Amino acid sequence: xxxxxxxxxxxxxxxxxxxxxxxxxxxxxxxxxxxxxxxxxxxxxxxxxxxxxxxxxxxxxxxxxxxxxxxxxxxxxxxxxxxxxxxxxxxxxxxxxxxxxxxxxxxxxxxxxxxxxxxxxxxxxxxxxxxxxxxxxxxxxxxxxxxxxxxxxxxxxxxxxxxxxxxxxxxxxxxxxxxxxxxxxxxxxxxxxxxxxxxxxxxxxxxxxxxxxxxxxxxxxxxxxxxxxxxxxxxxxxxxxxxxxxxxxxxxxxxxxxxxxxxxxxxxxxxxxxxxxxxxxxxxxxxxxxxxxxxxxxxxxxxxxxxxxxxxxxxxxxxxxxxxxxxxxxxxxxxxxxxxxxxxxxxxxxxxxxxxxxxxxxxxxxxxxxxxxxxxxxxxxxxxxxxxxxxxx
Length: 393
Ligand SMILES: *Cc1c(COP(=O)(O)O)cnc(C)c1O
Hints:
InterPro entries: DegT/StrS_aminotransferase, PyrdxlP-dep_Trfase, PyrdxlP-dep_Trfase_major, PyrdxlP-dep_Trfase_small. The chain is of the alpha/beta class. It is 37% helix and 12% strand. The chain is globular and about 70 Å long.
């Protein structure tokens, strides 16, 4: 049996009729940029997460860049984050001109260790970016308490955690801003790139909306006024969200970006969002089977904090002899993945930051041991059993 790490074709087949219909509708409508599907999906996603504003963008990386910029973070600022994550978390901090400051992770949950944050705070620190890695929430109460004490902003990197809960509260509502990715392999994925910024702060939302489209038009003007403490009225037009025929389009107020969620992706995500809770529940069901059947092996299974309801973006095992394990699983047709082989403080590109091996012992230890096995919702019980047997053998 051959089992991939994720099977996007299986998901497509399960909802093909709806996806084909909405895709065709967008194509024949010829409304490809912004428009009804985008604004409706933003509304539906905001409602799903439980926030006032959802601002869609081109991908999760751009969501992080714009979130940082909307909070005024830039040149010379320091931002605290984890080294055990996808590169974009730190890359975006660098991209806005700030410096990522790494804090080691907890050995059990792989999330940033709140007890090690305060020693890294300086007069330049402006924000903390916790990552809900593999779909399990970081310890947000502790993180928010530190942030409050030191007057820092909190940006949740929720790219792997859509639908996840912490102490009964939704991921995405736990900081000043949160960022999501709709990359096809994420728990909620589109047919290409997509991303979302969410916040309940009106001003952050206005600046983010302006930055997404060249800092122009009504939002650009409002964002300019906000950033410069100006209180005068702004010019408005009807259908100002229509970026194709908007008369305010060529009036620019900020240096921004061009990063929008395509209408066709929004239409696809509107079909998928109502299935998300069921898909995440199935991931938890599969994880439970793995937990039970693998607990008597010499592998370490994931530790979930009682306060968390994870969404298992990945099911991560740890092995003393990872390379041997992975090659044997490959022989048996079970795909695996290594997340993450190089912690970010040891990436070549960050040599200039001056970290060395031994600085983040937990992240380094994990980087030699962790690997992912298939956990996508369309996995059948028969496939799960096959994977368990292959691992046990
Ligand atoms: C996927 C991911 C991103 C970036 O999202 P893209 O849509 O690929 O740009 C950022 N952070 C984390 C933790 C991710 O997993």
